């Protein structure tokens, strides 16, 4: 058997943030299970999902944290931003208020993650075009002004869901490749497996694996 | 794991063996099927053909005398044993043989490391403490996970040895008839599959070959107890999963897991030295006993995780689903062999290479004695090679265009492989190898030249050989064959080694030089000329050697309906007339091995007369596998998705009886308890803990106590978490002042899984306890009647002027002190005996209600304690924090500085201080009765 024992060479941590009910959990579910979960229970806490994807021939394991969006949990969910390599910031195209709150989510994301964290804006429920309350153009402009990647997606139809998660990973990978994301930084949100598969270009000589465990230690008793 | 001490396992297996059969090694292993790991034991055993028993004994006796190596070779097989016992299989009857894998030419194994890491946020750097061993026979393809121990090491290396021995063996083809009892044994336990032990006259390996021949799982073949119901299924046996603990998963199904770090210690985690291994063995025994006593104990570290090396699993599963993304493409393969006796190609080869109406898809042409010039031996140079190559290229079938894939030559042996142009892009991994077997196995006058390639998605090997000459030298030919099999190895770019037997399709041909062993009275020439081939073919040495299994095990050869190909006078069809008078023989042969190969034609080409051999050819219809890339991707994606899905489903999950706790009004010092039931709804043990939030020191507010803060819940189990809420002096003020609410969010974290938030909300009923002196002096009505807004306002730094004249000291303080003053000045043990907490609550309620405490029927000790608590709960102590250092100094220095400190106190504080001091003084006056002294009070 030619393949090594490892089947992925990186782990990227993602968080999904945004107001309650915008479809964060549905997006995660659609991405990991390729199914729409219409009667998704409210997230009271932080859900967790994983999937292995491939970027530039590298297998990457995504560890995705889906946070509760209720305002009252805001202070608690902030604990989870740390060490995220990617942040998916979601609003609901049919509810203007969820869009209006983006700047406050963005502030949190910027303050609580590292400067290289890729922030991807998702306008969810794109399938409900008739009830649209936020135009594509204004959101696009908001994204541009804030240097965010952006798509409109639908957790229901699956449209652009895959893309959003993959594009984020590609961008992170690209950041690793051009050196702007320092894997040695404790909060890069990326873990690299030393002997990983085809150990690609990211395989620097001195990867600090001890930083790998940081993600949770911060918030455990 | 069976968790029997290794010695016991061996003993148990030995009981299963028939007399004369030997146990080489036994080891515990997990049989991995889809996502499920089942406990099994593997045993490598040794036996010999029943018919050989007497011979064997004879030989052993003979060897005792001569000291020679026994000629009868033993055969080895792997038994897979299963236990019906829940725990330790203590008797052999609880053990049955599930499947038998003979180590024959079809036997293959691969070994893969297994990443052992409990799915955690930290990556353990590549602990390779388990291995994945994949074993396949013609009948089974099984994947085992084994802990990396010395036992495992021994087992695996013995299997490797045995497999290697098979390719080298000189003894007859192993019949493995001795294994039949085991096979029946395994089949008898409920098998619906007839044991295919029938027609072994054709090919001995038939016993272990099932029709159709595609690899399948044992469980599919043998519906045995106790897993009969779900054998080979993808579902996870949930109650089996409950045995996720290393110690108690004995004999039951568990989801294959990456063994936990602590698992490593279990079965001798490393290549321990012998004595160390003994120690570990002892440890195992005690652990086993422990497990029996503590069957409900779950070890937290064992978490359900998908079976280890995912990549291996993907490969394994892809292999099993091969049928769903491949289709067979029939290709015509033309194989030709010709010993040209060193002559130049003076004639065209069309009558050899292009006699069929349809052009073949593949040509594999082998020449021998292409060049007999000395230079060819010494310098490897040959003028003949280009000549013959050109002759071949100009004589290929005219109806198609061909490209040469590979040409390889060793002295006189030349092998050319060509494919039709349209197939060229489907040929990959082309490699060649030459093996000399001439004098000292160094000289290339004899030997084999081979080409390995991937034709579409089937690995194909062509071997052109020239074996030792002369009638009586058949054993030498056998050895040449052995040597070619052993030494022909193709090394891929990744270092992967492929032997001839590792290919799916093998064509083995050439001048094998096997002759007709006939007694002098048999007239070979006459029989040959008369076309009585049957008689001669019985005497054909190759047929004889194959019949006894000495060479070409697993190969087929089509029926020979043509005259011997050797030896003719040049340019004639007449038998050798030289003085050597060589007898006719079928020296030139074509054999094949592999599934999906059908021979259509096997013939001699009499028209080509320039050599003393006539060329031979065979045409095959060979089904090569073609991977449908789209389907492959789809299946691959499915497999990956399934793995992802499983991985997500395997995440621990619990349900909470509530995620919000609403407290009834919380009073100062009054304990309120709530419970939350955490139920493990997953299939695996769950470790939970309440964790700290960002920037927090503790996982909850100081007024909350959680018990337990972390625990382990078995699948289906519950854990009741008690939440004790009690606002005491330390948190009263922050709550009273409105700086904080009685509100907290607890983060319940599952090890390896998601987090749950639990919200605690409640109203804190403000009390005079915990209120400041400044606020209290401004309140002239009962505390509980004061609006909250006013209280908050009073507690703020700049209270608005109230119209009423404030009290000199808080009235509540006065109540308490007054009570003590009038009832307890001479009570023994005042302030040193504890009060009753129930009474304390009553006092608090009474004070808040504005009721003088003297009307309460409570003990003075409770009142005394209430006074202390009252003082302690003051947000700003009587002696304000800012003056505290000065006060300490003053206390040491004397009256004047002390007086100065007192004068610096805020008014109401000074009042309280003076008042208290007066009271304390009085207490001291009564010291004889109340047994207080200055130091005790001072310490208060
Ligand atoms: N029509 C439509 N409904 C959606 C979509 N995504 C989520 N929903 C619905 O929106 C509600 C909230 O989704 P959920 O994932 O729980 O939101 P969260 O609070 O952000 O995690 C659910 O009732 C979903 O069925 C979408 O793309 N289209
Ligand atoms: Mg949600």
Q: What can you see in these coordinates?
A:
The complex is a heterodimer of chains A (221) and B (940). By secondary structure, chain A is an alpha/beta fold. Chain A has a single domain (10-195), classed as 3-Layer(aba) Sandwich (Rossmann fold), CATH 3.40.50.300. In chain A, 28% of the residues lie in helices and 23% in strands. Mean pLDDT of chain B is 75; it is low at 1-6, 67-71, 114-128 and 187-308. In chain B, the strands form 7 sheets. In chain B, strands 1, 2, 3, 4, 5, 6, 7 and 8 form an 8-stranded antiparallel β-sheet that branches. Chain B has a 6-stranded mixed β-sheet with strand order 11-12-10-9-21-20. Chain B is rod-shaped. By secondary structure, chain B is of the alpha+beta class. At the A-B interface, strand 2 and helix 7 of A face strand 5, helix 9, helix 18, strand 26 and strand 30 of B. Strand 2 of chain A pairs antiparallel with strand 31 (755-762) of chain B, so a sheet runs across the interface. Magnesium ion is lined by residues 24-25, 43, 66 of chain A.
Per CATH, the superfamily of chain A is P-loop containing nucleotide triphosphate hydrolases
- In whole angstroms, the N-to-C terminal distance of chain B is 64 Å
Q: Radius of gyration of chain B, rounded?
A: 46 Å
Which fold name corresponds to the CATH topology of chain A?
Rossmann fold
The main β sheet of chain B shows up as: 8 strands, antiparallel
User: Would you report the number of β strands of chain B?
Assistant: 32
pLDDT averaged residue by residue of chain B: 75
Per DSSP, the total helix count of chain B is: 29
Total domain modules of chain A:
1
Instruction: Using the alpha-carbon principal axes, give the shape of chain A.
Output: globular
Ligand identities: guanosine-5'-diphosphate, magnesium ion
The beta-strand count of chain A equals: 7
Structural class of chain B: alpha+beta
Helix and strand run of chain A: EHEEHEHHEHEHEH
Strand pairing plus helix content of chain A: what structural class?
alpha/beta
Low-confidence stretches of chain A: 1-6, 194-221
What's the level 1 CATH class of chain A? Alpha Beta
Output the number of helix runs of chain A: 7
End-to-end separation of chain A in angstroms reads 43 Å
Organism (chain A): Hyalella azteca
Family (chain A): Belongs to the small GTPase superfamily. Rab family.
Membrane topology (chain A): Lipid-anchor
Cofactor (chain A): Mg(2+)
């Amino acid at each position: 058997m030619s393949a090594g024992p490892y089947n992925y060479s990186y782990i990227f941590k993602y968080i999904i943030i945004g107001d309650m009910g915008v479809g964060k959990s549905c997006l995660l579910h659609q991405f990991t299970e390729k199914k729409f979960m219409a009667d998704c229970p409210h997230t009271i806490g932080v859900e967790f999902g994983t999937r292995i994807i491939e970027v530039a021939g590298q297998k990457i394991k995504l560890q995705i944290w889906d946070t509760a969006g209720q305002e009252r949990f805001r202070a608690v969910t902030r604990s989870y931003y740390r060490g995220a390599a990617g942040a998916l910031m979601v609003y609901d195209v049919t509810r203007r208020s969820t869009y209006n709150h983006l700047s406050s989510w963005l502030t949190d994301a910027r303050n609580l993650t590292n400067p290289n964290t890729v922030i991807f804006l998702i306008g969810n429920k794109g399938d409900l075009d008739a009830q649209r309350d936020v135009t594509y153009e204004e959101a696009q402009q908001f994204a541009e002004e804030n240097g965010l990647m952006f798509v409109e997606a639908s957790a229901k139809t699956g449209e652009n869901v895959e893309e959003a998660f993959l594009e984020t990973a590609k961008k992170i990978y690209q950041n690793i490749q051009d050196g702007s994301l320092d894997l040695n930084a404790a909060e890069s949100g990326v873990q690299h497996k030393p002997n990983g598969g085809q150990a690609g270009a990211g395989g620097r000589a001195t990867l600090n694996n001890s930083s790998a465990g940081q993600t949770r230690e911060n918030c455990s008793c | 794991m069976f968790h029997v001490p290794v010695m016991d396992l061996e003993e148990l297996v030995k009981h299963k063996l028939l007399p004369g059969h030997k146990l080489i090694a036994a080891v515990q292993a997990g049989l991995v099927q889809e996502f499920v790991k089942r406990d099994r034991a593997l045993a490598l055993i040794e036996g010999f053909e029943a018919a050989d028993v007497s011979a064997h004994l004879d030989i052993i006796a003979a060897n005792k005398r001569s000291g020679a190596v026994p000629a009868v070779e033993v055969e080895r097989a792997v038994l897979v044993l299963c236990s019906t016992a829940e725990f330790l299989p203590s008797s052999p009857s609880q053990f049955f043989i599930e499947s038998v894998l003979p180590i024959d030419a079809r036997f293959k194994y691969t070994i893969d490391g297994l990443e052992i890491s409990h799915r955690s946020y930290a990556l353990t750097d590549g602990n390779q403490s388990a291995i994945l061993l994949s074993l396949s026979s013609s009948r089974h393809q099984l994947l085992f996970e084994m802990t990396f121990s010395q036992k495992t090491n021994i087992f695996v290396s013995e299997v490797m040895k045995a497999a290697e021995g098979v390719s080298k063996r000189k003894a007859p083809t192993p019949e493995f008839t001795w294994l039949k009892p085991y096979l029946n044994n395994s089949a008898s336990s409920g098998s619906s599959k007839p044991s295919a032990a029938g027609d072994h006259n054709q090919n001995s390996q038939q016993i272990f070959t099932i029709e159709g021949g595609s690899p399948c799982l044992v469980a599919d073949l043998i519906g045995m107890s106790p897993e009969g119901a779900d054998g080979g299924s993808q579902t996870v046996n949930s109650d089996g999963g409950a045995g996720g603990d290393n110690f108690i998963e004995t004999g039951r199904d568990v989801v294959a897991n990456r063994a936990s770090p602590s698992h490593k210690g279990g079965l001798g985690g490393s290549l321990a030295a012998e004595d160390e291994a003994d120690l570990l063995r002892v440890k195992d025994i005690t652990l086993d006993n422990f497990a029996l006593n503590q069957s409900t104990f779950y070890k937290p570290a064992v978490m359900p995780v998908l079976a280890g090396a995912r990549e291996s699993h993907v490969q394994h599963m892809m292999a099993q689903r091969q049928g769903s993304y491949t289709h067979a493409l029939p290709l015509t393969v033309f194989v030709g062999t010709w010993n040209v006796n060193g002559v130049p190609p003076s004639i065209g080869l069309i009558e050899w290479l292009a006699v069929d109406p349809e052009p073949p898809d593949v040509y594999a042409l082998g020449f021998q004695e292409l060049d007999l010039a000395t230079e060819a031996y010494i310098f490897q140079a040959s003028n003949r090679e280009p000549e013959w190559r050109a002759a071949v290229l100009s004589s290929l079938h005219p109806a198609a265009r061909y490209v040469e894939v590979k040409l390889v030559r060793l002295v006189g042996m030349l092998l050319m492989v060509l494919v039709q142009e349209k197939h060229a892009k489907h040929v990959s991994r082309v490699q060649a190898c030459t093996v000399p077997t001439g004098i000292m196995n160094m000289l290339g006058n004899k030997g084999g030249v081979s080409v390995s390639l991937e034709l579409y998605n089937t690995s194909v090997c062509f071997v052109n050989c020239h074996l030792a000459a002369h009638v009586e030298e058949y054993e030498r030919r056998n050895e040449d064959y052995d040597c070619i099999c052993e030494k022909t190895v193709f090394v891929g770019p990744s270092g992967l080694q492929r032997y001839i037997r590792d290919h799916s399709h093998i064509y083995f041909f050439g001048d094998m030089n096997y002759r007709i062993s006939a007694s002098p009275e048999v007239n070979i020439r006459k029989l040959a000329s008369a076309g009585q081939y049957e008689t001669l073919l019985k005497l054909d040495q190759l047929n004889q050697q194959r019949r006894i299994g000495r060479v070409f095990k697993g190969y087929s050869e089509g029926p020979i309906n043509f005259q011997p190909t050797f030896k003719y006078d040049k340019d004639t069809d007449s038998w050798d007339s030289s003085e050597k008078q060589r007898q006719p023989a079928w020296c030139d042969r074509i054999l094949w091995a592999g599934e999906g190969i059908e021979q259509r034609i096997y013939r001699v080409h009499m028209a080509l007369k320039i050599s003393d051999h006539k060329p031979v050819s065979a045409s095959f219809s060979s089904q090569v596998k073609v991977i449908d890339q789209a389907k492959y991707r789809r299946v691959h994606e499915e497999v990956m998705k399934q793995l992802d899905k499983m991985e997500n489903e395997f995440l621990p999950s619990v349900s909470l009886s509530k995620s919000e706790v609403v407290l009834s009004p919380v009073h100062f010092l009054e304990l309120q308890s709530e419970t939350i039931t955490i139920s493990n709804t997953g299939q695996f043990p769950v470790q939970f803990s309440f964790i700290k939030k960002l920037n927090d020191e503790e996982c909850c507010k100081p007024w909350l106590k959680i018990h337990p803060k972390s625990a382990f819940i078995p699948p289906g189990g519950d854990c009741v978490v008690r939440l004790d809420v009690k606002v005491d002096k330390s948190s009263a003020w922050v709550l009273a002042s409105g700086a904080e609410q009685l509100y907290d969010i607890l983060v319940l974290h599952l090890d390896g899984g998601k987090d749950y938030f639990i919200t605690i909300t409640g109203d804190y009923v403000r009390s005079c306890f915990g209120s400041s002196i400044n606020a209290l002096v401004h309140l002239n009505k009962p505390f509980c009647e004061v609006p909250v807004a006013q209280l908050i306002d009073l507690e703020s730094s700049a209270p608005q002027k109230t119209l009423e004249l404030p009290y000199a000291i808080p009235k509540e303080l006065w109540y308490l002190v007054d009570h003590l003053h009038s009832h307890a000045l001479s009570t023994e043990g005042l302030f040193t005996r504890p009060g009753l907490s129930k009474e304390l609550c009553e006092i608090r309620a009474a004070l808040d209600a504005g009721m003088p405490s003297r009307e309460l029927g409570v003990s003075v000790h409770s009142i005394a304690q209430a006074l202390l608590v009252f003082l302690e709960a003051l947000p700003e102590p009587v002696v304000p924090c800012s003056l505290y250092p000065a006060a300490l100094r003053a206390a040491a220095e004397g009256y004047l500085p002390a007086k100065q400190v007192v004068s610096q106190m805020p008014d109401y504080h000074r009042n309280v201080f003076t008042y208290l001091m007066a009271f304390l003084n009085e207490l001291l006056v009564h010291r004889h009765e109340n047994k207080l002294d200055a130091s005790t009070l001072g310490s208060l």
